[in-house]
Amino acid sequence: MLYTVGEMAKKMGVAPSTLRYYDKEGLLPFVERSEGGMRMFKDADYEFLKIIDCLKSTGMQLKDIKSFIEMVQRGDDSIDERLELFRKQKEAVEKQMEALQTTMDIVSYKCWYYETAKKAGTTSIPDNMSEDELPENMKLIRDKIRK
What is the b/e burial string over 44-61, where b = at least 16 CB atoms within 10 angstroms of the residue's CB? Predict the structure, then answer.
């Protein structure tokens, strides 16, 4: 089945201008054109676009995504390069996840803190709780925050 830019954009959940921009930046060399010059996407293109979207969501720059696409087009001689690219990106995502977990821990602690303060009618209660009075999971987070 063939899709227009608008149809593929809808399927992807992005604006049509995003796909046009990707094409302009050289990320879609595999996309065919109709006799009238319209971009025509195939089902296989959707799978490749999902990979591009995934890489973009990891924070990979478009120039690096373009390099990946060029590697794919070169064929099997670039397998090692592609594997290395994905290993590096995996490390970057793991670091992002660690940072997000720290952020979530702080937000969770602050929710507990203000829920406790609201019940007591004052922030002095959670501020002055001893280690024994703190919930176990909040002790760990408070220790992280104070480091």
Answer: ebeebbeebbebeeeebe
| Residues constituting the chain | 147
At 127 the pLDDT is: 87
Read off φ and ψ for residue 48, nearest 5 degrees: -70, -40
Segment 31-52 mean pLDDT:
91
* Domain 2-74 -> CATH class: mainly alpha
- Quote the pLDDT of residue 1: 87
Q: Is the pLDDT of residue 16 over 90?
A: yes
Burial class (CB in 10 A: 0-12, 13-18, 19+), 121: exposed
Assigned token pair, 61: 């720059």
Asked whether 65 and 55 are in contact (CB, 8 A), the reply is: yes
